[in-house]
């Protein structure tokens, strides 16, 4: 912890009183750069009124006018959505909003992960066009894709489509020849927050559309659908895509979780009922809802998930939710097998000097490689790339570790690749089979310094606050929940405390469970894998922990997840 991270005691007390927060949490937020009452209030009470103006997104005036014109003439609107949860929720958001506006010429296209691969594919547009009948020229809206598809956009233009790209992936130096592009990463864009998910960019397109419809006099504001009603979809896609939950994303996610708690959308209600949860927390999305939606695009047809999201029929939604639950079970079994195989290979053949985990197999299903890579990266604290081998091509997914930009490292090796794309934490790559060994070697060398720097940065920020007197302030848990939702950019704080503990017991053969007595309540604590560690029946213990919400038999409670445990000196 640097000197700059230490908040003066007087300032800490003043801010705690002004914001009705425990001093410990003021100190946590101070370390995260929130250092006055205005910044703290904006973080603790994110408001939709604070969203930036949609016209700050470069391309918004052109995109919103073009879409408004297409609606006015009754022309076909084709929504082309990526097959993951971010793309599916973004596509469903556009589809449902335009349907509620009363537009009847609505169509959607979903590429297949295996047959088509990521991105915009002209053959799907040509197939749609063959079925179209004598309508005005179609307007194509890409969601969560398109920014790198120069040739495909040119082909779409030649097929007669007008193209609006909405995407959030990093653009290349040359941009596609689209009629309008919405992407906060494109050069010259004045939008103040570049971390939007694909569904966030789509939401902003609808904000711009509402403005244009009112400006041109075709609608009054009270005649237009309320965008807040669609924020459950925005929350779902934002959490699923693991973008930073700060700034605009925090505003959208906080409001979206409130809408999700109302459980009004038939598809999401059926999906939650199938899983046995009442949704309302970010964890419900990341651990339960998003994996089920993603399962369709990973190992089957993404249309199953899309139809669920746009369904207004509870019976149909229940059937589709059942299909997704079964697909998710199969997806989990596939990814578990890959994970176990790689763990065996690491035990036999891998050295601790390796900076990258990279394996390739012919029999691995490409749709689940990203899930297995995520588990391996967390387990071994190394970026991981897993590849499927087919027809001389190695194609797969990579996942990084906290603080390491895997996309930047892969970009340095692009001469070996046939294609790649994604962001710092997650990406996809393809390359000739014979280039895999060179790619592994070059990437391993490239990551030597970056991995060590990422680890050092994490070690230097191990603890956010030390309860030196052994007391957690009264009202702490209620105040702590105001910091949620947690996620990238707003991780769960880590605390340290020195205190007597009670009721220690080993559970599950190797895990340690105990209680931390406090004046206001006793906190239950769990230290995974530390059951053979310390005798906790007497004496004082010092440990590092994070507050975690525990779900058991439909009930939610808070517990302390212990990461380090030592006898106090």
Main sheet properties: 7 strands, mixed
Which sequence of strands runs across the widest sheet? 11-12-16-17-15-14-13
Individual helix count: 18
**Whole-angstrom Rg:** 25 Å
What does this protein look like?
- It is a single chain.
- The protein is of the alpha/beta class.
- The chain is 42% helix and 18% strand.
- It is built from 18 helices and 17 strands.
- The strands form 3 sheets. A 7-stranded mixed beta sheet has the order 11-12-16-17-15-14-13.
- The longest helix is centred in the middle third of the chain and has 36 residues, at 314-349.
- The two termini are 21 Å apart.
- The mean pLDDT is 92.
Using brief descriptors, characterize the structure shown.
18 helices; 569 residues; seven-stranded mixed beta sheet; alpha/beta; 17 strands
List the helices and strands and how they pair.
Layout: H1 9-19, H2 23-31, H3 37-44, H4 60-73, E1 77-81, H5 85-100, E2 106-109, H6 122-131, E3 139-143, H7 150-158, E4 162-166, E5 180-182, H8 198-215, H9 231-240, H10 247-261, H11 266-275, H12 282-299, H13 303-310, H14 314-349, E6 357-361, H15 369-380, E7 384-390, E8 393-399, H16 406-411, E9 419-422, E10 426-432, H17 436-459, E11 465-467, H18 476-480, E12 495-500, E13 502-507, E14 511-516, E15 523-527, E16 540-552, E17 555-567
Parallel strand pairs: 1-2, 1-3, 3-4, 4-5, 6-7, 11-12, 15-17
Antiparallel strand pairs: 7-8, 8-10, 9-10, 12-16, 13-14, 14-15, 16-17
Helix pairs in contact: 1-2, 4-8, 5-8, 5-9, 5-13, 8-9, 9-10, 9-12, 11-14, 12-13, 12-14, 13-14, 14-15
């Amino acid at each position: 912890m640097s000197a700059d991270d230490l908040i003066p005691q007087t300032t800490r007390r003043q801010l705690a009183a002004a914001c009705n927060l425990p001093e410990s949490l003021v100190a946590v937020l101070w370390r995260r750069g929130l250092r006055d009452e205005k910044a703290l209030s904006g973080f603790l009470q994110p408001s939709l009124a604070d969203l930036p103006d949609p016209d700050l997104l470069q391309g918004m005036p052109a995109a919103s006018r073009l879409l408004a014109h297409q609606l006015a003439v009754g022309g076909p609107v084709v929504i082309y959505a990526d097959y993951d949860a971010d793309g599916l929720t973004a596509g469903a958001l556009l589809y449902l909003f335009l349907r509620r506006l009363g537009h009847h010429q609505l169509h959607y296209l979903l590429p297949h992960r295996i047959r088509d691969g990521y991105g915009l594919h002209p053959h799907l547009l040509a197939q749609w066009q063959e079925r179209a009948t004598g309508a005005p020229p179609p307007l194509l809206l890409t969601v969560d894709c398109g920014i790198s598809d120069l040739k495909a956009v040119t082909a779409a233009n030649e097929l007669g489509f007008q193209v609006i790209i909405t995407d959030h992936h990093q653009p290349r130096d040359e941009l596609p020849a689209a009629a309008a592009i919405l992407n906060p990463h494109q050069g010259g864009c004045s939008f103040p927050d570049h971390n939007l998910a694909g569904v966030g960019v789509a939401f902003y397109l609808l904000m711009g559309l509402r403005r244009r419809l009112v400006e041109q006099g075709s609608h009054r504001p009270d005649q237009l659908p309320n965008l807040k009603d669609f924020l459950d979809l925005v929350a779902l896609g934002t959490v699923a895509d693991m973008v930073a939950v700060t700034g605009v994303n925090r505003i959208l996610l906080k409001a979206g979780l409130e809408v999700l708690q109302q459980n009004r959308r038939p598809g999401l209600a059926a999906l939650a009922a199938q899983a046995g949860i009442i949704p309302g927390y970010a964890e419900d999305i990341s651990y339960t809802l998003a994996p089920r939606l993603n399962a369709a695009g990973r190992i089957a047809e993404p249309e199953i998930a899309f139809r669920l999201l746009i369904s207004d029929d509870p019976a149909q939604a229940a059937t589709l939710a059942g299909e997704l639950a079964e697909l998710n079970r199969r997806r989990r079994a596939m990814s578990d097998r890959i994970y176990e195989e790689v763990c065996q290979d690491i035990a036999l053949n891998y050295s601790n000097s390796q900076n990258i985990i990279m394996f390739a197999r012919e029999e691995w299903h490409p749709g689940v490689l990203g899930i297995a890579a995520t588990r391996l990266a967390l387990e071994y604290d190394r970026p991981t790339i897993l590849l499927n081998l087919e027809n001389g091509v190695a194609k797969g997914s990579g996942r990084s570790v906290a603080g390491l930009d895997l996309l930047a490292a892969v970009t340095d090796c692009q001469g070996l690749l046939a294609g790649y794309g994604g962001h710092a934490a997650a990406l996809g790559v393809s390359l000739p089979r014979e280039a895999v060994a060179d790619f592994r070697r070059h990437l391993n060398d490239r990551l030597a310094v970056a991995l060590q720097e990422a680890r050092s940065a994490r070690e230097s920020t191990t603890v956010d606050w030390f309860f030196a007197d052994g007391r957690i302030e009264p009202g702490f848990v209620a105040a702590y929940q105001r910091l949620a939702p947690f996620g990238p950019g707003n991780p769960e704080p880590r605390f340290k405390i020195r205190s007597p503990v009670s009721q220690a017991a080993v559970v599950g053969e190797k895990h340690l469970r105990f209680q931390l007595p406090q004046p206001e309540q006793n906190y239950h604590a769990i230290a995974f894998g530390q059951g053979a560690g310390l005798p906790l029946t007497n004496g004082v213990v010092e440990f590092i922990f994070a507050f975690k919400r525990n779900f058991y038999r439909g009930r939610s409670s808070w517990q302390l997840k212990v990461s380090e445990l030592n006898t106090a000196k």
